[in-house]
Amino acid sequence: MSSPKNAVITGSTSGIGLGIATAFTAEGWNVMLNGFGDAGEIEKTRAGLEEKHGVRVLYNGADMTKPEEIKSLIAETESAFGSVDVLVNNAGIQHVSPVEDFPEAKWDAIIAINLSSAFHTTKAVFAGMKKRGHGRIINVASAHGLVASPFKSAYVAAKHGIVGFTKTIALEGAEHGVTCNAICPGYVKTPLVEAQIPDTAKARGMSEEEVVQKVILEAQPTKKFVTVEQVGALAVFLASENAASITGAAYQIDGGWVAK
After folding, report:
1. Which residues are catalytic?
2. Is the pTM of this model over 0.90?
């Protein structure tokens, strides 16, 4: 793809999203970061990526539960960079609880951030991508977009929804040079996964070490965490011209989890 190369990556101030942002900037892409966290740390990350790779890196703290803020995120990116060539929908939260105890507010927040935000961002960029005859939408789903685990009703519902949404957008963009694919990681050692460990231990009546060995890594035949660098490399490939004929796919990067 010729210049410019501009990407929006939601939930990119830490974890998988930051790994994807790092991979894109290393390939010469301008990136709009988004997410929560300490303002000083976010600025340090932003400036560091910009300086290291010689690209433009901006930050917008749009709340992914608020459609108007999402529209402003896309509008700011288009104003600053000229276009959104790649959209990576990565923002996500998690809560682990038996369904009978699952807080309604947590359900609503997970569906809003993990699923509905992808609709709002995609709606905001889609017309421009179609008009230019080129675009890449990459949705970070999960192995839980393909299979289920207990005590994660909202997360599994949202991630299954993302996979279905991916297929629909792929069909709508197919004749316009716009692809849409999902990445389905297994367990990646990120702050989100680390935060699940004590909740899962409580839900299952296990120690935290038992959760890591008998629940998390037990799911992955490789017995290894997926790395953020591996997910980032896959996202960069899906944004490339070599992936122009790949659309509507859900790519497993899960150490063999879903193969079982």
Report:
1. 155
2. yes
